[in-house]
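Hello,

Following up on my earlier ticket. Below are the four sequence lines again, exactly as submitted.
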Amino acid sequence: MAATPLENYIREQQMSLQWLPFLRALAAELSEQTDAETLRSLFASVGQRCALEAREAFEDVSTLGALTSSLNDFLAHIHWGVVEITEVPGGVAIDHHAAPLAEAFGDDALHWSIGFLEGFYQSLFGQLGAAPSMRVHALDEDCEAMLLRFQFGR
Amino acid sequence: MAATPLENYIREQQMSLQWLPFLRALAAELSEQTDAETLRSLFASVGQRCALEAREAFEDVSTLGALTSSLNDFLAHIHWGVVEITEVPGGVAIDHHAAPLAEAFGDDALHWSIGFLEGFYQSLFGQLGAAPSMRVHALDEDCEAMLLRFQFGR
Amino acid sequence: MAATPLENYIREQQMSLQWLPFLRALAAELSEQTDAETLRSLFASVGQRCALEAREAFEDVSTLGALTSSLNDFLAHIHWGVVEITEVPGGVAIDHHAAPLAEAFGDDALHWSIGFLEGFYQSLFGQLGAAPSMRVHALDEDCEAMLLRFQFGR
Amino acid sequence: MAATPLENYIREQQMSLQWLPFLRALAAELSEQTDAETLRSLFASVGQRCALEAREAFEDVSTLGALTSSLNDFLAHIHWGVVEITEVPGGVAIDHHAAPLAEAFGDDALHWSIGFLEGFYQSLFGQLGAAPSMRVHALDEDCEAMLLRFQFGR
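Thanks for your patience. The regenerated structure is below:
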């Protein structure tokens, strides 16, 4: 389904112009040098570091509602969209709207750049006490530029 | 020499908050996985791609003054500072003020992140007809966060 | 109907933080000193001046499609949303999405701050050759923060 | 003294593009309708309202150092520059660097738009317990676009 002018506007405005040329060129260079699986893993490591750096923002959180609220404050501050977190059978569903990921690295890179948010959420839930056996993974088939969907569970 | 409150303010405001956590974490991850020389070279390749993508902005340029002017329009548009380009014996001196490079990747990474602008300027002068034997290199000793100095020549 | 978290996020992110305190305070001060009709007229004059300043962007426009396209380039550049312009019986319908007007001056001030866009569009269509008897007016009942609707006609 | 390219860059980048056309047009319209003294007083009232809205940020402040620190956090958050506050004989000197005021309303309007910061500081010092007989006034002769100087005292 084609995006409306409003959807395109929001997607473009959301992305910092300062880093668009750099990140697009970085994606092109990395794609040429390395396979997608390695890049997804690299980006997951970067995402884990980001969550670790930001951990103070989440340390008093004890419910999913409080987590969602703290996370949305954090994301709004850095212009990274808005998230809905809900309990589902066997785990937690994470719907992340308006992340600048697809716009930054290109739609074609989304299948590996999404590793960044997988690593971020993995580290975040780990800090909150989740067992290491619980994994975050993107629902690749259900992801599109402005709505990235993840599931956290066994 | 310690930076003044105003200099710190300008440095921080200049950097897009959206990508600060990502780029700092990327720098930390890359530094752990790879040596500085390889990273400087990777960033040079990324810079070359950026210059290639932006080449239309410079194709009508035939003097250093016109190059400076086109370049500053381009840089202002993406919030990447302001540049002075002057002829010096044996080449060209490039003083790039207020680039967000040191703030984005950290002061400790500047000795390799600066490869990005080396690659960018190398590609730019190549497009304008410079011989491949002419190289751009950062004057590492004279670089500080808010003033990056390069020389282009043999 | 309550706005979703995503709609609130977009509305808030759209608005420049730099001028939010100033513009909110200006709206409060003006509302105390002056009646709504006078303010709507003041804002219309300000909008006309903006259109006049920007006239170069529209001088080669000869169709509604070309106008829409030039206007959206202009609006995207200054982060003022996106517009759809369509012919309707007796005139032209203008749907302006994601303008920062309601967020800047407050929802309560929208019935007079909207004069800004009325004046802007009035001047714009006048520059393009419309007869002075043709007026732009907001469809107040159909306006909400993120979709402002106008009609241009007799 | 002419501004350097770097100074011009900082001045322009500092100002939100979103409100530049509106605020310039507002200044032109107000200047035509009203005299400078009235406008300076209107802007002082707007500044007072801003300080009142922001008062929570300053309520635990009990020294000039703590005030400077809280104020700079507040200003950095909304991209309004950086301030130095020092005791001088008979009062307090306030040097406000990199405010977007001259860029927003134009250099020609600075002699009345500066009322905004006079009102802001007046209200701020009042909240902190200063006697009403103590007034903030801009040192008009010493003000230039990127350094606005005020004195607070009898």
